Amino acid sequence: MTPTTKNYSGCALLFASLFLFSISPVHAQSDRAALKRVALNLPDAPGRDSSSESSSTSSSNSDDDAAAPKGTSSISGIVQDATAALVPGARVILREKNTGRQQILTADSAGAFNFTALPAGTYQVTATFTALGVFVSPDIVLASGQQYTIPQITLPVATKADVEVTVSLQEQAQEQIRVEEKQRAFGIIPNFYVTYDPHFVPLTTKLKYQLALKTATDPVTIGAALFIAGIDQAADTPGYVQGAKGYGQRFGAAYTNGVSEIMIGGAILPSILHQDPRYFYQGTGTKKSRALHAISAPFKTKGDNGKWEFNYSSLGGDLLSASISNAYYPRNDRGPGLVFGNALITTGGRMVNGLAQEFILRKITSKPKD
Q1: Nearest CA among 320, 344, 324, 346 for reference residue 334
Q2: pLDDT class for 46, splitting at 50, 70, 90?
Q3: What's the average model confidence in pLDDT over 156-176?
Q4: What angle do CA 224, 227, 233 make, to 5 degrees?
């Protein structure tokens, strides 16, 4: 097979990837009422493991860091439990009362955290951890240049109300998926792998597989594979025979490509690596910041802990899916070149998709009816 024919096949694969992946390639105690209002907007805390230290790196609801005002103040503290033991890995959320803007930190191995570069204002700090209760600070009025340390942050023994908060977080995740499963560009093409909700809620393993299976079995996904098979049949690529048998083989290859990408990169690896497979719509800030956010989507994603991290799931899914194609492609269409070439094409498609998601698709994506 000539290089030109292989490049044509690559273009077809790119189109299939965009189409099959839904044009998203185929992720101070306060009163209890106040506690729930704050905590319901927060992801659950990670498991308590001092060997998995996290630096105090903030993650805000918006990716447009340039839009967030900077200051010279800070708020810090140390999280402990009722026995005065340190709580490394605790989730700490800082909320600016006037704007509602949030930052999230994970306490380090000493249970410490430090929110820096804060402007003057009124803030509230919430700390939470699996199997423990929730701490909510009183309002903190921060002056310009003030370095404030919260005197005592103690997570109590979990109560029934705290358990209800965790259950409610799971319900929020289910509601987000319910909404996303009804998102369709032009009311037809599935656009499931994007969330427009600025409040991050981690998906359970069950929900990751549910979203992947919904995408893989959608009639439009199957129709896209049939369409790609037709293009490949006309181009006589890959090197299957012509006729009905060859068309069937090309359809099987196209559909398997799409499904393997969706299942590996959208469910299996995200579940193992605790990452979110969705695209997080920014929607605010300068066009430059939004474009950079969009094209970086294949390389960064949010972990289930709410922090941005390298997107091993997406890139690993592309490589593994391309590797699996060696098992069913004709002998002349196999080899490392196919694997890395197709993986690069798919990753490039995700960058294009990110730009489409950020600037075009929301305008033409149908919204679910309540």
Answers
A1: 324
A2: very low
A3: 68
A4: 140
The domain segmentation of the chain, as residue ranges, is 3-26+167-366, 32-155
Q: pLDDT tens for residues 58-110?
A: 444 444 444 557 899 999 999 999 889 999 988 899 999 888 888 889 899 89
CA distance 48 to 34: 25
CA distance 154 to 156: 6
SS3 letters across 131-150 = CECCEECCCEEECCCCEEEC
Structure tokens belonging to residue 326: 């060696």
Burial of 367 (0-12, 13-18, 19+ CB in 10 A): exposed
Residues 103, 85: Cα–Cα separation, whole Å: 25
Upper half-sphere CA count for residue 237 (Cβ side, 13 Å) = 17
Residue 213 clears pLDDT 70, i.e. is over it? yes
Distance CA 353, CA 295 (A): 8
Which residues are CB-contacts of 51 (< 8 A; sequence separation ≥ 6)? none
Decide if domain 32-155 falls under CATH 2.60.40.1120: yes
Residue 98: Cβ within 10 Å count: 8
Q: How far apart are CA 92 and CA 137, in angstroms?
A: 11
- Per-residue pLDDT of 99-125, as tens digits, reads 888 888 989 989 999 999 999 999 999
Query: Distance between CA atoms of 162 and 39, rounded to whole angstroms?
Result: 9
Widest distance between CA atoms in the chain:
76
Q: Which two tokens stand for residue 204?
A: 């359970």
